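Hi there, hope your week has been kind to you so far. Do you reckon you could talk me through the fold, stretch by stretch? Thanks so much in advance, here it is.
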Amino acid sequence: MKISVFYDHLLEACEQQNITIQEALQITKSCGIKGIEINLTCLLENEEFIMKNLRALDMEISCIYEFYDFGNSTDLSYGKDHILAAKRTGADKILIVPGFLTEEEAFIINQVSDNKDTTTKEMNKNSKVLQMKEALIGLTNYASQSNITVTLEDFDSNTAPYARANQLLWFMKEVPGLRFTLDTGNFVHSDENVLIGYELLKPYIVHVHCKDRGIEENRDENGTYNKGMAACPTGSGYMPIGEIVTKLLQDQYTGYFAIEHFGADNQIDFIKRSANYMELIG
């Protein structure tokens, strides 16, 4: 099993524990973690330093992610820089967050998202969604020339037209070569069942964010699957991560499992506990 962790978590750990990034990376490596999930802007700001530290520990970048506004802009230049950075640093996958809608626009699509046909109809009517699709087509084609895979995740935002399973399925079918990064903790934001989302999008999964969610008392009582969004170590919350990981491994999944817990009050402790859990179920 290949495990990675978000570089942002290590930067947070440095502040929390008053340690250097090299020390944080060493602790991470000692937990059996080989990969780093990193934001493109962060990488480009200090690429030589970051890569030197990773290579010293025989670690690598599992995926590079970045946020865009393709619903309002057709400029693909930074997206191409994203792909070139992946090629340069040896990362074979990138994650694109292509943009957001207004609350009003998103509501129209979200209210019919439990049905594939009505989702398709509304997605095809929204000009921003169509512009995101075209941008993803262009970048996926460009990335394929360097054997780099472009992915989209189930993003936890009401204004993301790729937060829900049928919305993501539309993108997967409309953009040849686009693949799916499954975030185990994000479907509940839309009160969807991650196991149903997993089965629907299973053919497209090439990367996984193992994000757990902690139960919160002050949650929306109308939620069926959403019991809270609290940050917690992987394996300590209510998400069925063990079941999903087992299914993936049985299906010969060989990609990374990236542990994720933004907002942790002690990132080093969370990293150790998350990595230990992943090793146990792997």
